[in-house]
Amino acid sequence: LAYWKKARAAKAKGSETLLAADLTSGVKRAATAPQPTFGDVHYGPYERNVLDFWKAKSDQPTPVVVFIHGGGFVSGDKSKVRDGGTVRQYLDAGVSFAAINYRYRTNTPIQDVLRDCARAIQFIRSKAGQWNVDKSRIASYGGSAGAGTSLWLAFHDDLADPKSGDPVLRESSRLAGAGANGCQFSYDLLE
Is 0.85 topped by the overall pTM? Predict the structure, then answer.
């Protein structure tokens, strides 16, 4: 019962995520995210192929959680995660954080939208040395389209192409974990 009360209170305050640590801590959370360490970084060739990255303070490579916004693949923006204390929660726990934008399906097929998100994961891996990222501990989450995309990335075959001329595409697209809130059961339109 205490968990559900805290979960409802967190949702009422606009929090996207309730961590297990939130159940026992009385720590006050910031109302908005700090400025990203790297903002509006282009991870691909298209206008909406941009991400924000918050680097956690650590001497060792850090895990990364990637927020993929919802919006039915026709709306939404990475800036949604800046409201509430989600980013600060992860940074305080020593976890770096990223939020991505992707092309909308009104301009490109859904398969390309999903591959935009995979490329964002691959891009973050390509920056591991510069951004102090542990390549083996990258996860994503989101709601609606972001939730479905996170699950697609988690269960889809790795898209890494070791022979690609593009060094980003040589990186793995696999996730160590995925979180989903209100997602679709399939992107197979024939099911």
Answer: no
